[in-house]
Write a structure and sequence with these properties.
Blueprint (H helix, E strand, L loop, with lengths): L1 E11 L3 E11 L4 E5 L2 E4 L3 E6 L2 H12 L10 E4 L3 H10 L5
Length: 96
C-alpha cells in the first residue's frame, strides 16, 4: 500500500498564496505496466485540502487508518516537508 503526499502553492485572487495539500493512496497491485517504461495506477483514493495541514491530516487519516495494521508495508512517499514527516512519524511510526 502506498500513500503519496505533497503540497503546492496556489495564488488565490483575493487571498494571496495558499498551499493546497493532496494525498493519493493506492495498492501496489493496482499498478499496471503499459510498457517497461510506463506504469499506470488503475485505482486510487485522493484527498485534497486548501488550507492548514491539520485538517488535511484528519481527512487523509480517514483513509490511512484502515491500512495502519500493514506496518512497514504501508509506504509513504513525500518530498520530505517537515509537516508531512512530523505527522507520519507521530501517527504511523512503523511506516517507511
Amino acid at each position: 500500500m502506498y500513500a503519496q503526499i505533497d503540497g503546492g502553492m496556489l495564488l488565490m485572487r483575493n487571498e494571496g498564496w495558499k498551499e493546497n495539500k493532496i494525498g493519493r493512496v493506492f495498492r501496489g497491485s493496482d499498478r499496471y505496466e503499459e510498457t517497461d517504461k510506463r506504469l499506470w495506477i488503475k485505482d486510487s483514493e485522493y484527498v485534497s485540502h486548501l488550507g492548514g495541514h491539520e485538517e488535511f491530516e484528519r481527512k487523509l487519516s480517514l483513509i490511512l487508518d484502515e491500512y495502519s495494521h500493514l506496518d512497514e508495508r504501508l509506504i509513504v512517499v513525500s518530498d520530505g516537508a517537515e509537516w508531512i514527516r512530523n505527522w507520519v512519524q507521530a501517527e504511523y511510526p512503523r511506516q517507511h
